[in-house]
Amino acid sequence: MACAAGLAEPYVFAPPNTTPPNGITIAELVEIARAALTVPEPKIELNPDAKSYVNLPTWVWLDGAGETTRSVTATLPGVMSATVTANLTNLEIDSGTTDDRATVETKGCGLKGTPYRKGADFTCGVSYKRASIDQPRGVYVLEVTSVWEIDIEDDVVPFAYDPVEVGATRDVPVGEVQSTVRKTG
After folding, report:
1. Which residues contact residue 147 at a Cβ distance below 8 angstroms, ignoring those fewer than 6 apart?
2. How many CB atoms lie within 10 A of CB 6?
């Protein structure tokens, strides 16, 4: 009945490799691909895991981050396609406190941080200088953010996307080790 009333749009034939009049554009196809592109939320791993101590390096890395490149292609079969890619480019660490209470080390973090290895140099993580007992809930709230740059394959459209920043937090209780030195002999 809609056709008889003239309410329906007539069919439009579009030859292969062409865009129908008022049809989807390459920019819209890029937007569709970008909307479908997801990156993983970081899962923070630490060593020591349960509790750290003043002046003890706390190693930081991401678990389950998977591949450092992810892409999505949106396609109009036989007409056009657009690919949007996210590349993990940076890992940012926030100790959850001020510089006088912690030092952040990121020179050897790479894209996913550095897992603890016995005997290895500490190159990625936090060294807390003060215990967390005076902090809310008695912990520092460590934040790790993975930064993903977004690229459009072949620059098919003349605009760029802001990087995607995905963060996660983890409570880090930091204690102190008290010791007494006695002279013997």
Report:
1. 88, 89, 90, 91, 92, 163, 164, 165
2. 7
Residue 146 vs residue 5, higher pLDDT: 146
Place of tokens 């977004």: 150
- Closest CA relative to residue 33, chosen from 147, 165, 156: 156
Dihedral of alpha carbons 130, 139, 91, 116, sign: positive
How is residue 131 written in tokens? 């215990």
Could you tell me the pTM of the whole model? 0.78
| DSSP characters over 39-69 | -PPPEEEEES-S-EETT-EEEEEEES---SE
